[in-house]
Amino acid sequence: MSTSLASASRRRVAWPRHPIAVAFLTFVLSTFPLVLLAGPPQGPELGQPAPVEDIEKWDIGIMPDGEGLPPGRGTVPEGKVVYETHCASCHGPAGAGGSADQLAGATMGLTSEYPEKTIGSYWPYATTLFDMTRRSMPMDKPGLLTDDEVYAVTAYLLYLNNIIDETAVMDATTLPRVKMPNREGFIDVYELEKGER
Prior knowledge:
The chain is mainly α and 197 residues long. 44% of the residues lie in helices and 3% in strands.
């Protein structure tokens, strides 16, 4: 037998000899299979599952085509009353602006030196106006307005922006049909991505 082979057979694996190292290694090797069997880690189990009623209350998204619009209706005169009661204190008389954004009355276009982003000059869909108003207005009490009140104030704001006439009635059928002036002013990224595939 050669000397290199003889010396290799005499070498032994160096196991730790210190008692703490031996105990640690024994612990790791004995608990590792248990960790594998335990499965994925569990959460901290905080809170409680949300009741279905709460989820339904906040699951109120409206799509641009009107999908998700609730039953109800509203007119421009009704909307004026709602606006003056709940909106004018922030958005100013007739949507002219105040402590919150101007909603109507833009005199400068979006391509001008000083563009004005109002509902009539900027927003692409009337259904978005309904959705945003319903879920987040009035600012101090979001969700306060009934669906009829939201349809009404939406009608009033569309009227202030010269998009519908004073006799129009907004509901789940008529609102999606409103053609906003800036409908074609946005780029549909999703359609662009489909074309690139």
